[in-house]
Amino acid sequence: MQDQQRVWLWNSVFVAIVFVLGYSIYLASGKIDYTWRWDRVTPYIINTEPQEIIAPGDGTLELGSDGKSLHLVLDSGADPFIVKKYTEMVAAEGDLIFEGDTLATLNDWQIGPIIEGLIVTIEISLYSLVIALVLGLLVGLMRISANPALRNLAILYIEVIRGTPLLVQIFIMYFFFGTVLDLERFTAGVIALSVFTAAYVAEIVRSGIQSIPVGQMEAARSLGMSYPKAMIYIILPQAFKRTLPPLAGQFINLIKDSSLVSVISITDLTKAGREVVSGSFAPFEVWFTVALLYLVLTSALSWAIQRLEKRLSASD
Amino acid sequence: MTNAPEKIIIAEGVDKYYGKLHALKDVTTSVHRGEVVVIVGPSGSGKSTFLRTLNQLEKIQAGTLVVDGIDMYAKDTNINKLRENVGMVFQNFNLFPHKTALENVMLSPRIVAKRDKKEVEEHSRELMYKVGLAERMHNYPSQLSGGQMQRVAIARALAMRPDIMLFDEPTSALDPEMVGEVLDVMKSLAAEGMTMVVVTHEMGFAREVADRVLFMEDGALLVDEAPEKFFDNPPHPRLKQFLSKVL
Ligand SMILES: Nc1ncnc2c1ncn2[C@@H]1O[C@H](COP(=O)(O)OP(=O)(O)O)[C@@H](O)[C@H]1O
Ligand SMILES: [Mg+2]
Prior knowledge:
Bound molecules: adenosine-5'-diphosphate, magnesium ion
Strand content of chain B: 25-35%
Helix content of chain A: 55-70%
Structural class of chain A: alpha+beta
Strand order of the largest sheet of chain B: 6-7-8-3-9-10
Number of helices of chain B: 9
Number of strands of chain A: 9
Largest sheet of chain B: 6 strands, mixed
Largest interface: A-B, 21 and 30 residues
Number of helices of chain A: 10
Helix content of chain B: 25-40%
Oligomer: heterodimer
Shape of chain A: extended
Structural class of chain B: alpha/beta
Order of helices and strands of chain B: EEEHEEHEHHHEHEHEEHH
Distance between the termini of chain A: 33 Å
Shape of chain B: globular
Number of strands of chain B: 10
Radius of gyration of chain B: 18 Å
Strand order of the largest sheet of chain A: 5-4-3-7
Strand content of chain A: 5-15%
Order of helices and strands of chain A: HHEEEEEEEEEHHHHHHHH
């Protein structure tokens, strides 16, 4: 009973502190005479305004054979401009249309630049996660190999990558390797992030494998398994389970680190945020929104990994 | 072909070093098919090391080892193939904790010997029955007692249908009340004619089951005798001393 009360007390303290922090942010913004205009941000997230469908050139408007779709027969003789989806016609059948005229309007939700940036961030993170996992596993296995060439290569790789800043690596990947190998920005960004994360994954994999008692490998080998078979069936599944928490941390870092690729002009969530700030004049709202979206991504990942951990703990 | 059983293990002049430590000193012995050989000796005398050279978990620096008719250190020897015929049971069981008892038993016949799934499952169930764990097949190792785990480990080794079974102190990590159940399984295995090399401190087992008992000290094989002579009339002063301590 006593304990119960104490828990309640401290939970209330927690809520109170969070509330005070939030309120002081509000007060601080009042001090600099800032008007919160969240409505300015929403169109950059999801745009609910009706869109205008604009004529790409001069021509005549006709109805399609289905009686619904609009065909703009262009004077230039190019293929007609066809509008299949619209809510309301603005121009009428047979009208002469000039370039830039509105043909129709469409009441449809459109994702804004912030969500587009979010999608790019998710794409970059997913590609990098998969590549980093494979590369990190490979380097981790090389790291514990009995072959000195493989082992030293792995050590060199890990030391070089962990000893230099990610931002510098992104620049080198883009300006040097990107130029030499003719890489696109997106590819260069993904490779830089993967190579960086893989170095940390390799160390996690190494310590995970080494945490499995040697008796496991001996038992597997004594049953006739080759080294690769013993690794695949016995050691790695156990090591994987143990490395899930540190791997989760590493992949959360990956999502956050992905914001750095905005420096090579990839329009990820961070770059989209910067662009929207200059269009909306609502910097505080935009950056809080961006932060919240990153938080959603990282929490979703850590939730998913926790689920996986639970599932794997069946044998404990 | 002679009628005398073949020598299934031949060790000649085996030397093993761990860095500077001379762990096996010129060990020479042999084991016939169907024989049960028990190795005893003080801790650190090289018993485990010798046993582990027999499936090459440890490599030797000098001498020859012929197991199951195959020279272990010949150029064309496939050690994985050889290990399929040599089962090993460890002091700490070394069951695979992420697999159920039955999966532990079935794994190697499936992925190494690539035997038919139905046949392997049937055989594995039989083995689980044989070691008295038919009811525990779907338990994970963490849900089994030490004695049960060791019996699963024996079944797992037997699943490869080995010609030879090696035991490294199979009962030393067990609570006293569980020692008997594991020794019983080993006794029935011996009765079926399995070739066994057993490192143990269970002198009762040695006396009752062994065809020969070996005594090692300081990496050297000092005594190789039938159990009656070994225990009742020890032929080496060091053995006499050792027995006076353990019996
Ligand atoms: N992997 C190893 N590295 C170095 N020394 C070892 C290793 N394994 C065993 N030894 C040493 O070799 C000797 C024999 O060990 P072992 O065969 O385990 O003895 P026993 O099984 O008779 O107790 C001991 O002195 C032990 O410390
Ligand atoms: Mg030992």
